[in-house]
What does this fold into?
Amino acid sequence: MKKAAIIVVSGLILIAAFAYLIYPTPYKYMKYEDKYEVQVPMRTNFITGDTEIFDDSVGWYKIQK
It folds into this structure.
């Protein structure tokens, strides 16, 4: 009986961690528009606060704070 309760609680903790950290994604996606009106994909990690911009040649790179 005790082993079954541990398994159920462990499963609930895993489901809660999955729901919080993985689904939905930890990133908020936005479009950044520069002074030439070019839109660039940008994402912000809501856990760490890191912001990244997408470049076709490099991929995602962090913006310096």
About this structure: The helical segments are 2-21. Residues 2-21 form the longest helix (20 residues).
